[in-house]
Write a structure and sequence with these properties.
- This protein has helices at about 5-30, 30-35, 40-60, 75-100, 105-115, 130-145, 145-155, 160-170, 180-205, 210-220, 235-250, 255-260, 265-270, 270-290, 295-305, 315-320, 325-335, 350-370, 385-410, 415-430, 440, 445-460, 460-475; strands at about 380, 380-385.
- By secondary structure, the protein is an all-alpha fold.
- The chain has a two-stranded antiparallel ribbon.
- A hairpin with a 2-residue loop joins β1 (about 380) and β2.
- The mean pLDDT is about 90.
């Protein structure tokens, strides 16, 4: 039985064309910064930008007659996966043309920025052109909300297509009944917090360019800094606290943000994911403080960065690598868990972890209870179904398998096991924290594997598997 036919391919091509146009525009925006700083790299942005826009118009016009065909979830997932890859290629091409770096390094840097992984291939980012630094920050800001989400909010009309594409980026929460209205409110909230972050950084004494770029990277929980020492470069406690607040805001569900004003803050207090996230931050900070001699503000900052999968830091990777093993284990655990679903974070997501443990507790109680008794379990007033428990368990298992495979391959190439494990968890969870200098020592094939991990982690694995399965289906005899 064939699951993908010619009509499916045409439908995917048509809707991918619209997203390619948006990605092309994304590549052209840094030209503004290039002109301001007179860096004369316009051609480097124009070539990939115009290529993407031209191909997007060709695809959308050539296959426009297929626009009325009903879109299913499989189409949305494939379009989403391919769009993220295309964005990586086009943005990577711009970096390749401007910096002269290796093509695999350019693709790595681009995918890391877009997915909010925040791991940089550059040993010295401060020598890069200002437009490239802005471009990396912009990619994180767009990717934090979702490349597809940002583009469909502008280019697509309300309906099934926008709904399926929205769901394909692992987003289920609806702020409004329609997807288009939900997108409008989500972007409005995102813009408000972005503006607030820029203003707060300016008031704390940060330069204007730095304020814009750092806000883009922090509110999106990306963490790829414009300084070699990341946020630690500023040596300013006020900037540290502002960053902590922005990381937590970025890791909180947009649905909760939307309800904050209407409920006078009660939605934040009563949200289970938010309460668990704050509890993890508090417990983790206290535990690390008791077993180490790390400065308290650095502990709090790093714990928040790990839980929110931001990857911002106030200490160098080599310094973090010298911390006690218990500290690294705590950080890796938090990087695995991640923040709230419906936010900008990576990782497994708190709701899946909560569902898994509640489901486990439910089964334990049913075994201990009289035969035939059903134990009802709820999360935030909603009944927990067996299907939800099964899906959470399946995803967590698949997520850990991906980490195990990548970790094993990196170790096979002779890299330190602990550094490799930390790096792999950071990759799959789109975190960005590192211990040691593994990224610069990676072989080309490991860089490609890392790109795959960041891609699959951002899309929550299933869309990538669906896309790969469909690719083999198309070429199957």
């Amino acid at each position: 039985m064939r699951y993908i036919n010619k009509g499916d391919v045409f439908l995917i091509a048509r809707n991918s064309g619209l997203l390619m146009i948006g990605i092309g525009v994304l590549c052209l925006i840094p030209i503004i910064i290039d002109l301001i700083y007179l860096e004369f790299n316009i051609i480097g942005y124009a070539i990939p930008g115009l290529i993407s826009i031209a191909l997007g118009f060709i695809f959308s016009r050539s296959f426009n007659k297929h626009s009325d065909r009903k879109m299913r979830m499989k189409h949305g997932m494939i379009i989403s996966s391919l769009s993220w890859l295309w964005a990586c290629i086009m943005c990577g091409l711009a970096m390749y043309l401007i910096t002269g770096m290796n093509i695999e390094d350019a693709l790595f840097e681009s995918m890391s920025a877009l997915t909010g992984s925040g791991i940089t291939i550059f040993p010295d980012v401060e020598i890069l052109p200002q437009s490239i630094l802005f471009f990396r920050a912009l990619q994180q800001w767009v990717g934090g909300l979702g490349v597809v989400v940002m583009i469909i909010s502008i280019l697509t009309k309300p309906g099934t297509t926008s709904a399926k594409l929205y769901d394909s980026e692992a987003r289920e929460e609806r702020l409004k009944p329609s997807t288009k209205a939900t997108l409008k409110q989500t972007i409005k909230i995102y813009l408000i917090y972005t503006a607030a972050g820029i203003i707060l950084y300016l008031l704390a004494g940060m330069p204007a360019f730095d304020s814009v770029c750092n806000t883009f990277t922090i509110i999106s929980t990306g963490g790829m800094s414009i300084k070699n020492m990341n946020i630690g470069f500023y040596h300013n406690y006020m900037i540290y606290f502002i960053t902590i607040i922005l990381m937590i805001l970025g890791a909180t569900s947009f649905l909760v943000h939307y309800k904050v004003i209407k409920t006078r803050g009660k939605s934040l207090i009563h949200d289970l994911q938010f309460k668990v996230m704050i509890s993890l931050i508090a417990v983790g900070t206290i535990l690390i403080y008791l077993v180490s001699h790390i400065v308290p503000i650095e502990i709090l900052f790093t714990v928040v960065s790990a839980v929110t999968t931001t990857g911002a830091s106030v200490q160098s990777a080599s310094t973090m690598g010298s911390w006690p093993m218990f500290v690294l284990i705590v950080l890796m655990t938090f990087m695995l868990i991640g923040g709230s679903s419906g936010s900008t974070v990576g990782g497994i997501k708190l709701i899946r972890v909560i569902t898994f443990f509640k489901g486990t507790y439910k089964h334990l109680r049913e075994i201990l209870s009289p035969e035939g008794r059903v134990i009802p379990i709820q999360i935030s007033g909603h009944k927990l179904t067996e299907k939800a428990i099964l899906q959470s368990g399946n995803y967590i298992t698949l997520y850990l398998i991906c980490i195990l495979i990548t970790w094993s391959v990196i170790c096979l190439y002779g890299h330190d096991p602990i550094v490799s494990l930390f790096y792999t968890i950071s990759l799959e969870g789109n975190v960005g924290l590192e211990i040691g200098q593994l990224t610069q020592a990676l072989q080309p094939e490991l860089k490609l594997l890392s790109i795959f991990n960041m891609w699959s982690g951002r899309l929550e694995i299933y869309p990538v598997l669906i896309t790969l399965r469909s690719f083999f289906e198309v070429f199957k005899r």
